[in-house]
Batch of 2 targets.
Target 1
Amino acid sequence: MSEILVLVDHVDGSVRKTTAELLTIARRLGTPSAVFIGSGADAAQAALAQYGAETVYVLDAPELSEFLVAPKAEALAQLVADKQPGAVLISSSAEGKEIAGRLAIKTESGVITDAVDVVAEGDGVKTTQSVFAGGFTVDATVTHGTPIVAVKPNSATPEEASGAATLEPVSVTVSDAAKGAKITDSKPREATGRPELTEAAIVVSGGRGTGGDFSQVEAFADSLGAAVGASRAAVDSGWYPHSFQVGQTGKTVSPQLYVANGISGAIQHRAGMQTSKTIVAVNKDPEAPIFELVDFGVVGDLKEVLPQATDEVTKRK
Ligand code: FAD
């Protein structure tokens, strides 16, 4: 079985759920190995072993953290040339997609982004990809070089499997050309206590229909352990921060459950959420376009529906 490299998504060694998803997919394709860039690999080792990583390649040159993504892509290209893996899996975040694209150029390989499924096919992999803002799904394979696949968060349910997760330091050289953009400052986002929007299994969003009061949306989200999202109308009105906007000019989410509250369902909003597994909408207008898309719809005032739904969920816990 060929080795499948998974780029670890972590914050100071704390491994994000998307990596467990990628390792789960990697096990279906071959022997999973993790690639850990930065410091904190010791802290991540147990979590990587828990999802079946056999080897953890540790790339810890200071340049990899001091600059934007170009050095990471360059270092990964050196590892790919050395290991000749069957595929490289990366989380389809904004940074992940940029690394994937740069890596594909450096390795002269094909790249597929926004994959929602990856299966083995012949000597390679076949992906199902979400394209045109989620309007179509396309099956695609890489026909040249090592397949570089960026997979959307929540595309697989993490399954545990024990792996050795043997740490293997890898020395890399970073060229001056890759050091074009240096990070001068970074601040962690204010903690909300809720899951990260793009990774959350459940997202509860609010739109103009909230009238600017997100308290009921937040209370319902908290009863479900969900992330909170917002439409652009809500963000543009200053009711919720831009980092929570879902849609074409916001974040793309693909949770197990998406609940849209007081959101009409404009095409630009759909672009960010229509690959969600189950979609529920609460809207007082029975003709709202969001109802064309939903699995379950509630016609009603969110100010009445959400408190009842929150009570019901809380009661059943
Ligand atoms: P509205 O369209 O005004 O809908 C509000 C809904 O709330 C209505 O359906 C109404 O019936 C319902 N409602 C009102 N009161 C209640 C109540 N008490 N209870 C229940 N329901 C109620 N939009 C995004 O969301 N994300 C994007 O990334 C994005 N990018 C864009 C990019 C471009 C280039 C452009 C041109 C637009 C973009 N938009 C985006 C904007 C998009 O076109 C819509 O204007 C926006 O999504 C509308 O937000 P909304 O559904 O909250 O508001």
Target 2
Amino acid sequence: MILEVKNVNKVYPNGCHALNNVSFNVDKGEFLVIIGLSGSGKSTMLRCMNRLHDVTSGEINFEGKDITKLKGASMREARSNIGMIFQHFNLIPRRTVMTNVLSGTLSKTGVIKSIFGIYSEEDKKKAQDYIKIVGLEGKENVRADNLSGGQQQRVAIARALMQNPKVLLADEPVASLDPATSHSVMQYLKKVNEELGVTVICNLHFLSLVREYASRVVALKGGKLIYEGQPLDINEEW
Ligand code: ADP
Ligand code: ADP
């Protein structure tokens, strides 16, 4: 087990109870998909896992250590193990693929280096390797805003890999892409999962994609966990 979510509650300052006593485990090497309607708490769950949000109560144990209460350097260290990509890619539009990927490099203290940072030859070699893994070899010097949506998401995957995460969180990574491009991005996520051994936790709402890519599924409804199991048994009404 790499992650244990235990009795997690998240109440936003406006009173919205986005996660209600949610518990589930994630095994090392899994491709876990979280499903649920819009507003069911999927995004909140991922944001609590990498400390973009704090839980209101409960524990999130990463490799046996509760990360919800860590602060400062120990929080940054735990966080460096947990990378994230988003629906809208969040690249720096006017910068090249190489610069965007390098911007995911962490310094030794776990802080993201500035986009104007000086990168070592080792960092550049690593960036080159990840650019190749996501199929963008030859596009190193192309500006991010000149790429298609699918290519931009692949840059975001390579950028997230620069911190050597053990877990990659993907928040609706294909929600703004067409079906063919969605498959391509999902295949690269699968490749990262299988070839690099990175555990993937991905929010998705297209059930056909869920059935094809998930090794296991967790379903949320109104902030509560309503299902944990095989993708074949998932229900259209969730
Ligand atoms: P999903 O990812 O499944 O669409 P979210 O986690 O984004 O669900 O949202 C769960 C619930 O929490 C929704 O009711 C949403 O409106 C609410 N919510 C999300 N983010 C915030 C926030 N920053 N402040 C207040 N309420 C929020
Ligand atoms: P997404 O599809 O990315 O989940 P949303 O429209 O649900 O987009 O949310 C966009 C942003 O607004 C997110 O950062 C979310 O946390 C925040 N948000 C969502 N619902 C609320 C809310 N009721 N109050 C405040 N912020 C919210």
